Structures are given as C-alpha cells and as structure tokens.
Amino acid sequence: MCGRLNVIDNPDVIELCEGLQISLFANQPIFSRFIRATQPVSIVREKQGVRRMDTAIWWLLLDKSDTGFKPSKYTSFNTRYDKLNVKNSAGYQPFRHSRCVIPVKGFGETEYVNGKPIHYHDMVAKQGGLFMGGLCREWFNSETGESALSCSVITLPPHPKLKDIHSKSMPLILPPQPELLNSWLDESITNPLMFDELLKPRLPVNIIAWQIDKPSTHKLVAPKFEISADI
C-alpha cells in the first residue's frame, strides 16, 4: 500500500466512528482527501479501557528532535503482515498491545516499475467507509517532557482483484463486524492468534476505483469501475 489516505468529512466516515462507541468530537477529527505518510491522521484506539479518537503521526517509528519527535529514517508508515510475529520487529509489541483502526472513506495506490511510478489509482468504499487495521505507539521524550503518538497501516499480500492496481500488497481492511472490531481494539487481548485469518488478502466490501493523473491534481483519466467484495 502506498502512502495516501482519503479521510473526507463524510457522513459515512462519521457513522463508522460513532458505531465504535467513541465520542467523535472529543478530539477534532482530521479530514482531508489526501493525507500522505508522515502527516497527522485520526485513529481510534482503546486506552485503559476507554475507546477514544486521537491524532497520530502516520509513521510508526519516531526519533527525538529539538522540537519533540520526527519520523525515523526507517520507513514505517506501513507494517507488513509477515513482520507482526517476528520478535524485535517494529510491529511485534504494538500488534499485541496497541492495535488501532483508521476510519477512512478510501485510499490510494501507486504502481512502480524499476522505482518509477507508472500509474495512480484512488479507491473508495461503494457504501459507507472503511476501517483500516493499524498499529499505534506512544513516545515520550524525557529531556523535553513532550509526548507523541504514531501509527502505521498493516499491509497484506497482493489481492488478485487488485493486481492491476497495485501488484505488491494491499492494506488490511477490517470487516465491518462490531464483534470483530471490538476484539481488535480490546487492549486486554494480547494473544493475536485470533486475528490470523485477517492477515490474508480479502476485500470485505465493494470498492469503486479509478485511475488519476497524479495524487496532487486528482484528475480522472479513465472510467470508474467497481471491484466486488469477496464472498
């Protein structure tokens, strides 16, 4: 998955958040058609048994800086599924103790060949919004007393239905099932074996996709098309 999210001020996204029984505007959500990696994004997590929305830097690993924290030189806006159970990896502890969801309307993908982009696509849920499965981590600078929250999106193997859009991976899109979402956010569940089935490529909802010229201008260059959910 490439580094951009669509989190518009949309009733579908708001409904998703309210369905998680959080106080949506306790922390003003961040809305933008184009949120790129390293920028702030709104996440939902559970902290000391309380469901809450917080602002996180979309880059899991942070380094101390003179002004607080900055994204690490190590790329970490995504966390690969096959690293989640590797001890000492960046995602190992968060997968067990600080899972989160990132409510979005859609996301964007860029296909690269030999390090060069060859096409860009945007995708949104046909109905409602999407819950991206993610990880978060808290940071504290003992020298300055400042704190920060960071996050990443879990990525899965490529999906056959998306191979012409992005051939290397897809984001973890959580099925919109309250029981599953509650378990994902439950900080008391520290054995992630129950989530193994989620780490296989699957489209739980119908997606509308279209090719664009580039993310900054977002001009349609081909007709929109539908990608059906997996049964």
TrEMBL record:
Isomerase is among the record's keywords: no
Protein name in the entry: Abasic site processing protein
Positions of transmembrane segments: none
InterPro entries in alphabetical order: SRAP, SRAP-like
An MF annotation (GO) of this entry: single-stranded DNA binding
Keywords of this entry: Covalent protein-DNA linkage, DNA damage, DNA-binding, Hydrolase, Lyase, Protease
GO biological process: protein-DNA covalent cross-linking repair; proteolysis
Pfam families: SRAP
Family statement drawn from the similarity comment of this UniProt entry: Belongs to the SOS response-associated peptidase family.
Taxonomic placement: Bacteria, Pseudomonadati, Pseudomonadota, Gammaproteobacteria, Alteromonadales
EC number(s) on file: 3.4.-.-
